[in-house]
């Protein structure tokens, strides 16, 4: 007989993630289970840093909100807490910085996808972000230098727009006026 430990909540997760023995770990809560994320590759971390740079260059002067890095946590649902490689949350949705993790999902999440991540797991995460109120999710694939822009449609379905190095991402309603050439996020 297999006994399963009880599932934990996002609030319990953030307390556990802050313990000294977890200080060097990148953890996420997926369906009530704590999962240790693999370290990012050099390429993936540089891609995330480049996206953070471009977002901050737009967000900070316009006083729109906050851009977080890969250690910034968001409570997405009661049983899911993620640390996207890049996150943006508007001041309209979260006015002050206080506490460990953002208590709600980001407006924009960027996940730089590792080759070990399954497309099914990526899609599950995208759906959870959208269900929790995230307006745009970018999944970035360094190997083929492509980006998928995920949004919820009015009928509740999920739309994915593929972009390649010749395309430009548009911030839409989340970041009106923000554009980013896909080629600019990938190291030469």
Molecular structure report:
The protein is 21% helix and 29% strand. The longest helix is centred in the first third of the chain and has 18 residues, at 42-59. It has one domain: tt1808, chain A, CATH 3.90.1570.10. The chain has helices spanning 10-17, 42-59, 119-131, and strands at 27-30, 33-36, 65-68, 74-77, 80-82, 86-90, 108-113, 136-141, 146-152, 158-163, 168-170, 179-181. 32% of the residues are buried. It is of the alpha+beta class.
Q: How many β-strands, per DSSP?
A: 12
What is the radius of gyration? Answer: 16 Å
Whole-number tally of structural domains: 1
> Termini distance?
53 Å
Please give the largest β-sheet: 6 strands, mixed
The overall average pLDDT, rounded, is 92
Order of helices and strands: HEEHEEEEEHEEEEE
The residue fraction in helices comes out at 10-25%
Q: Strand content of the residues, in percent?
A: 25-35%
CATH architecture: Alpha-Beta Complex
Shape verdict:
globular
CATH superfamily: tt1808, chain A
Q: Per CATH, what is the topology?
A: tt1808, chain A
């Amino acid at each position: 007989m297999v006994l399963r430990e009880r599932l934990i909540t996002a609030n319990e997760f953030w307390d556990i993630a802050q313990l000294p023995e977890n200080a060097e770990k990148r953890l996420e809560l997926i369906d009530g289970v704590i999962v240790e994320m693999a370290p990012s590759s050099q390429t993936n971390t540089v891609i995330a840093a480049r996206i953070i740079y471009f977002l901050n260059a737009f967000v900070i002067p316009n006083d729109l909100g906050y851009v977080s890095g890969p250690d910034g946590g968001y409570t997405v649902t009661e049983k899911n807490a993620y640390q996207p490689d890049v996150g943006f949350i508007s001041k309209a949705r979260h006015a002050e910085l206080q506490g460990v993790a953002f208590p709600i999902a980001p407006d924009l999440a960027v996940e730089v996808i590792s080759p070990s991540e399954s497309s099914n797991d990526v899609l599950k995460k995208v759906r959870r972000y959208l269900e929790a109120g995230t307006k745009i999710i970018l999944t970035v694939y360094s190997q083929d230098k492509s980006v998928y822009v995920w949004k919820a449609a009015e009928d509740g379905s999920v739309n994915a727009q593929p972009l390649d190095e010749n395309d430009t991402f548009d911030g839409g309603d989340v970041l009106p006026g923000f554009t980013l050439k896909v080629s600019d996020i990938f190291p030469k």
